[in-house]
Amino acid sequence: MTHPRANIGVVGLAVMGSNLARNLASREGNTVAIFNRSVEKTETLVAEHPEAGFIATRSYEEFAAALQKPRTAIIMVQAGRGTDAVIDALTEVFEPGDIIVDGGNALFTDTIRREKAVRETGINFVGAGISGGEEGALNGPSIMPGGSAEAWQTLGPILRSIAAVAEGEPCVTHVGTDGAGHFVKMIHNGIEYADMQLIAEAYDLLRRVGGIEPAEIAEIFAEWNRGELESYLIEITAEVLRQVDATTGKPLVDVILDQAGAKGTGAWTVQSALDLGVPVSGIAEAVFARSLSSKPAQRAAARDLPAGAEEWSVSDPEAFVEDVRRALYASKIIAYSQGFDAIVAGAEQYGWEIKKGEIAKIWRAGCIIRAQFLNRITEAYAADAELVALVTAPYFADAVAGALPSWRRIVAGAALGGIPTPTFASSLSYYDGLRADRLPAALVQGQRDFFGAHTYQRVDREGTFHTLWSGDRSEISAVDAH
Prior knowledge:
This protein has helices at 15-26, 39-48, 60-65, 81-93, 108-119, 133-139, 149-162, 180-208, 214-224, 232-242, 252-255, 265-276, 281-293, 296-302, 317-350, 356-362, 374-383, 394-417, 422-435, 441-452, and strands at residues 8-11, 32-35, 55-56, 72-75, 99-102, 124-131, 142-145, 165-166, 169-170, 465-467, 478-480. The protein has 482 residues and is an alpha/beta fold. The strands form three sheets. Strands 3-2-1-4-5-6-7 form a seven-stranded mixed β-sheet, sandwiched between helices. Strands 8-9 form a two-stranded antiparallel ribbon. Strands 10-11 form a two-stranded antiparallel sheet.
């Protein structure tokens, strides 16, 4: 019989699970029990890292027996049926008060369902978003746990011990109940899609319009990373652009197939935003840009279609590069603003008390979208917890105002030059829509009432109205729908 010695366990020992287990074991006070359906992976991890002091187990019963009460286990398996199978197995050997943590990229509605089902057994279920990839899992990720306050009492110190640290603070906070953690992680990934696509569009403009080669663009990005655009993604972009292919001697970016993959979290963000009625147009265009890139037959068929474009000649290269930088920064602000709009709407819909400033703080290190200006987001919500849109906060409003001339020049120039900039353009259009005194939605409402009697409201009096539409305009009249 295994004596309970471990304060935390990990189920699932693929790269992410193995790295997380090693991270946990490296922190003072943690002893880690490990289990994998394939015993070989367990034995390999123990053999390769004897310093970790892992307690290797070969069955769920042995795994449960190795854990101190309340037992705490983190599941690191592929989202979907595999997760459900592990949860079912653990609930058979765990007891009321124990804690099961899903650290995978689960859809938040699945987490809500699982938490409700597991709660009936008396066991706590926590959906925790873990960002930072393989390196983050090993050295310190940003962690977004949901679940009950009771579970957080036990889990909090463990997660704080392994999280990334920004300015002396661990990048983990109790996000909210049931699916809140996975919801916020999903939005994080949606923002990541937008951020990556924006950077790619900036690169494309510098290359195609500016005529700048990848190695030099790498230096431009490295310079940008020393200013307000400082972030992990800008940093690694410079590294990618510096890389030379060993086989051909060409810039590696030129020999990589231009078809971008996706794992679904970006699409989940857009689908959820549609359900919540929140425009996340920059994120959506980033997702669609990947989809378009992955349609080689359509792209080949359309290659000879007319462009009707004008040649875009750059007379002042330095000014052009600065225009691209400012357009990138403004569009990035919109991506985060839209992402936080979705978090606010999700919290309202599902009854979560999410502290927006705390989310920005835990994204400052460990995660993929870590960036200098996340501190400004925390400050914005600290100054006004009920901020209706992040882009209206003084710091961000001023930043966008300073970038607007550059942003407009870039989007207009790209349109005239036939260069696709879907996230730059949609972000600017969203900004203009947000600040518009009056939108053409009034006409849409008229159309809806004409063909479907959907009714409308008026600017000059209260009530809901429907017009008895007729071909003879003199017979048009409005009646109170009530």
